[in-house]
Amino acid sequence: MVKPKSRLLLLLLVVFSVSTAAVFFVRTALDSCDSRRDEGLLRPAAKESGAERRSPLAFMRSKKVVLVSHELSLSGGPLLLMELAFLLRSVGTQVVWITNQNSIQRDEVTYSLEHKMLDHGVQLLPAKGQEAVDTTVKADLVVLNTAVAGKWLDAVLKEHVPEVLPKILWWIHEMRGHYFKLEFVKHLPFVAGAMIDSHTTAEYWKNRTHERLGIQMPHTFVVHLGNSKELMEVAEDNVARRVLREHVRESLGVRNEDILFAIINSVSRGKGQDLFLHSFYESLQLIKQQKLQVPSMHAVVVGSDMNVQTKFETELRDYVASKGLQDRVHFVNKTLAVAPYLAAIDVLVQNSQARGECFGRITIEAMAFQLPVLGQLLVAPQRSLWMVNSLLHPAGKEGVPLLAKNIVKLATHVEQRLTMGRKGYERVKERFMEHHMADRIAAVLKEVIEKKGPLTFLRLSSVLPSQTPWKQRLPILSRKDLWSHPLICTLD
Ligand SMILES: *[C@@H]1O[C@H](CO)[C@@H](O)[C@H](O)[C@H]1NC(C)=O
Ligand SMILES: *[C@@H]1O[C@H](CO)[C@@H](O)[C@H](O)[C@H]1NC(C)=O
């Protein structure tokens, strides 16, 4: 008999070997900024009381929930929605999944994700058609994932949109300009609530919707993410970590005593891999100039996809070759599993540029593995999360010398590295576990489901003629005072 733990480890090794040979992975949209103290809305979770802890989502038993995703892929958004699906399934919720993608490529990735969902008892429905409409109209709750999923409402529900709006929770993970299109978000003011991963992103959305589109955000909940149970199991298993570390290092040609820095994001200029490599090179120069005694230093860039970012990827490789760093810098394709890499490295670098990330999930994942983080300053506008395990540097070229210094600092100060890592781990245990996320989400679902009551039968057409163009309706309908107006909230 194989014990569950060893089975998990075996599975990870298999996934690891497969993923290095195949393509996938991506945590694009989601890697992000922030983490402030949970203020206001959502109280920190109560202390965990052993294994029998009742799920905060228990009240969702036998409720019907429809999840609408803009795609089925290994990017951050869909993966999070899947995690929510499984959390809900674990308490007996009826969960229906809809992927609203024009042509879903039936590749290995979608196949395995669909399989995983079916295994968990999630029902899969085609995006279009009467069944999708009927199911949604009958559901207790509809979760739209990312702004783009908004396109599905008019396209599929048509005249049923108004009656569905009051039970929609809109989960938003992105912070980019091109999402602020009426085409995607015109219904946003009328849904029961929006759920956003960080305070910074929530602020940004509030500003942008107001200024660019003249619409108001609905009631908005900030819900920080948490690490999945699976990830924590590996992170807290010394044997698993050691085996994975040896395995990955061997595959890269890095020895156990070498120091390995990693940047784990989909490769693109916005994620700052180029500037990281410049800093890495500078740090080697510093070490040489100052004749410092440090173990051999390596860097690994996890998240390559030559087919997608050909120009940038080529630029990175050319840089590495021009500085003679081929033996020290390693590129790894996008992969399903980040855990093996987190087990193998010594320091995580988070160098997303400009506004950075909406939450930066890789950061809390690295913290689970007791890793120190070298982070771009703006990625962490709320420092409380980062200060415990991070050294920070500014964005852009100006950041390169400081990042280089920080790399040298962590390479030469083993004690500091370990202390930072330990503190990060403690922070994760306090605030960023799956059960914390479940508590936060449960509070939101409860509020949304309980609130929707009298609004369920709202007919927008009873307020304004349906032929009124959206542009004219929005400023009127998004006025908060109208929403509490008895005329509008009457049962139909
Ligand atoms: C990485 O991806 C490239 C192109 O997408 C492919 O040619 C290469 O074989 C992959 N490498 C590994 C180790 O799978
Ligand atoms: C929101 O807008 C105000 C005024 O335009 C500005 O001062 C503030 O910095 C903006 N906040 C964000 C997060 O963009």
From TrEMBL:
Q: Which InterPro entries match?
A: Glyco_trans_1 (IPR001296), Glyco_trans_4_5 (IPR041693)
Would you indicate the residue range of the signal peptide?
1-21
Oxidoreductase keyword on record? no
Q: Which domain of life is it from?
A: Eukaryota
Glycosyl transferase family domain segment(s):
246-374
Q: Name one GO molecular function term.
A: glycosyltransferase activity
Q: Which UniProt keywords apply?
A: Glycosyltransferase, Signal, Transferase
Query: Is Transmembrane helix one of the keywords UniProt gives this record?
Result: no
Under what name is this protein listed? Glycosyl transferase family 1 domain-containing protein
